[in-house]
Amino acid sequence: MAKRIPKTVPPEKIAVAKDCGLFSAFCEVIVPLSPMIFTYAVPEGVVLQRGSVVWVQLSHRKPTLGVVSRVISEKPAFAKAKTAFPHASGYVFSERFMEKLEWTSRYYLSTQQQALNIFLPKDFEKYLDAVFFEASQGNAPEDKPLTSAPELPPLTEEQNSALEKLLELLLQKEGFRGALLHGVTGSGKTRVYMELCKRALAAGKKVLVLVPEIGLAPQTAMRFAEFLGFDIPVIHSALSAPKKRAAWVSILSGKASIVIGTRSAILSPFDYDLVVMDEEHDSSYKQEDPAPRYHARSIAFHEAAKYGGLVLLGSATPALETYCAAKNKKIDYLVLSKRATETALPNVKIVDMKKKVRLQDSSLLLSTELREALTETVQKGDQAIVLMNRRGYSKSRICAECGNTFSCPECKVPLVYHKQYNGLLCHYCGRLFPLNMACPECGSPEYEFAGGAIEKLEEEIAEWIPDAKTIRMDRDTTANVGAAEQILSDFRERKYSILLGTQIVAKGHDFPGVQLVGVVGADSGAGVPDFRAGERLFELLSQTSGRAGRAREGGRVILQTNNSEDPIIHFAIAHDYAGFAEWELESRLDAHYPPYAKVATVEVGHQDYNFLIQKAEAFAEVLSRNQSLEVLGPVDSYIPQVRGTYWMHLLLKASNAVDIRKSLMTLPEDLEIRINIDPQ
Q: Is it the case that residue 280 has pLDDT exceeding 70?
């Protein structure tokens, strides 16, 4: 049973407002999501400093925790001030943490209060209570000696060469160091990470290892723990409360020497010397909501440049910005061109579904080729992964009488039929509507479905391949704490023969039993109006294909597509990253997109569409007066209405981020505004 941590309480006099003349010191305090930074008095006999965690009160609300941004001796202009009291733990954030907080808010154009809201975990107060409790019990940091690592095959020549160079960067240089480890899928990048981390820890360095998805964290933590010989703190949102508390207490108390986590771990008060970003290309490293919309890679680069350290980026399909930085020698470029097991990359076959429609039942999602390959794989006792990047059972419900597509009344996007919920779900606001409601246009109760999705595919596999044991992994099946970890563990232990999933199954997983990968709808997302759409499609196809045949020869990949002539698909099936990069970068250069420019998006919203148009066009006109800025838009956002609010979109391009940030210092009033610097 987990031990109960007593709750600390704020001092009783916290809410008392007194004459400012009675105090000799004051402090400015950042409170998460508060409208501004407030000034509080420091009581006599209390010592506070920049970074101190304090109890304060806003208006007549309950006391809350804030962080001191600076201590001042000048008396404020107002006559009375409330007091700030330190948390019982006496915890003080380091100067590095405070600078990181301020830089993030400044670079991504948010307030420090918004930044602190995402820097501090949800139960931060409880974690500080636990730190205080452990200190009061006299618990000393535990010394966990490394045990012998499990027997592993010797490093390949390429792995050895990469490791030697990385050790040189880690141990023999100061200041910022960056490196890209560009290795084909299955080349043993994780082994290089582990060897490097072991040597870093032996040299007294602190290490942060980042993975893009929650589902990858357990696999990574297990491999590192077995290799290093001790349990490693893990940080992500789906952890159980006791595990999350233990991880945070180890960081806050200074016990942790290595931490593994997802994107938000970069925000923790863990002053690392080495940060490893696995699958660094993944868009999950970019925060979308709420503000600040940071990228973990940018923060890692900033910290390494400011405080010294090595940033190691690893991927089989690096982000084009990272690839260009490596090619231009801004960071070191290390290549693993062969699989560590010496097995060949899988054979990839394209199935043109446009032709198949004329030859088979067009309602079927599985082609004959993929169906037969899955049957053969299951019969041999091997495993398969099937990817379909579309949640639900059917992508829309259509009135059989008038042809109206049922849409969310608040978001104006088609409702998706989810058999699991027996209803129509809006993927933007989350509202669930009855399946059998009458058509809002003509009142007819008759309807039909259009476009299959992953739940329908699951049924189809069960019908055509009854011997298969299939498990589905998507946002609907992984909503509960620990669900994703359990699904992956069961599949790794071969309790299931087919793992069916959305893009979450394509990212970095290592399943020795997988000999077949199928992709249904390989070209989905290609038509999205986003300059990164082609890059994301190439990454998805390459990464998914890389799950097949990692342990032994004979891996196969079958891609079903309606656009078999797409150059991106052909680059992916040829495993030709360099060819794709050259082709894509040429178009980026012509159109002045990253890595040849900096971009930002500004979304403006209002419930009155005509008022929104007027304000958005006026704002674009003001921005266009800046000669260093290229302004595209405003146009309706890709999803033009969400929860009753209309949205319009502007894209800003400039040679550097400074010009963009300066142009956005003054924003239109009376509009909701979302700013995204370096959008993904």
A: yes
* pLDDT, mean over the chain: 90
pLDDT at 1 (0 to 100): 43
Rounded CA separation 311/307 (Å): 12
What are the tokens at 139? 């618990």
CA distances from 359 to 31, 229, 309, 355 (A): 64, 57, 59, 7
Q: Which amino acid is at 152?
A: L
Binned at pLDDT 50, 70 and 90, residue 253 comes out as very high
Is residue 507 helix, strand or coil? coil
Three-class DSSP category at 647: strand
Class of residue 280 by CB neighbours under 10 A (exposed 0-12, middle 13-18, buried 19+): buried
Residue with tokens 């202009």: 77
How large is the average pLDDT for residues 186-211? 96
**Segment (H or E) for 328:** none
Is 442 within any annotated ligand binding site?
A: yes
- 411 annotated ligand binder: yes
Task: Record the tokens describing residue 288, joined without a space.
Answer: 């979308």
User: Known binder of ligand: residue 20?
Assistant: no
Among 11-25, 70-84, 157-171, 397-411, name the one with the lowest average pLDDT.
11-25
Pairwise CA distance, residues 555 & 346, whole Å: 5
Please state which of the ranges 13-27, 109-123, 187-201, 408-422 shows the lowest mean pLDDT: 13-27
408 assigned ligand-binding residue: yes
The pLDDT of residue 136: 81
CB of 349 within 8 A of CB of 370?
Answer: no
- What pLDDT score was predicted for residue 143? 46
Position 669 scores a pLDDT of 87
Distance of CA 588 to the CA centre of its chain: 24
Predicted TM-score (pTM) of this structure: 0.91
Q: Determine what percent of the chain is predicted with pLDDT higher than 90.
A: 66
Average pLDDT in the 164-174 region?
Answer: 91
> Torsion-angle region of residue 145: left (phi > 0), alpha (psi -120 to 50) or beta?
beta
Distance CA 93, CA 190 (A): 32
CB 637 within 8 Å of CB 647: yes
Tell me whether residue 197 is annotated as binding. Answer: no
Q: Can you give the pLDDT at residue 503?
A: 83
Per-residue model confidence as pLDDT tens digits over 486-505:
898 899 999 999 999 988 88
For residue 641 the two structure tokens come to 């209405």
Cα atoms in the Cβ-side hemisphere of radius 13 Å centred on 61: 10
Helical residues (DSSP H) of 153-308, grouped into ranges: 157-172, 189-202, 217-228, 241-252, 296-307
Helix (H) or strand (E) holding 452: strand 447-452
C-beta of residue 387 within 8 angstroms of C-beta of residue 517: yes
Cα–Cα distance, 446 to 334 (Å, whole number): 60
Report how far Cα 447 is from the mean position of its chain's Cα atoms: 38
Domains of the chain, each with CATH number or no CATH:
12-136 (3.40.1440.60), 157-336 (3.40.50.300), 347-391+453-586 (3.40.50.300), 598-677 (3.30.70.600)
Distant-in-sequence, close-in-space partners of 47: CB < 8 Å, separation ≥ 6 = none
- Spacing of C-alpha 552 from chain mean position: 31
The crossing angle, in degrees rounded to 10, of helices 454-464 and 368-379 is 60
Cα–Cα dist 421/433, whole Å? 10
User: Among the listed ranges 231-245, 514-528, 554-568, which one has the minimum average pLDDT value?
Assistant: 514-528
Q: For residues 232 and 580, give the distance between their C-alpha atoms in angstroms, rounded to a whole number.
A: 38
Average of pLDDT values for 441-457?
90
Is 27 within any annotated ligand binding site?
no
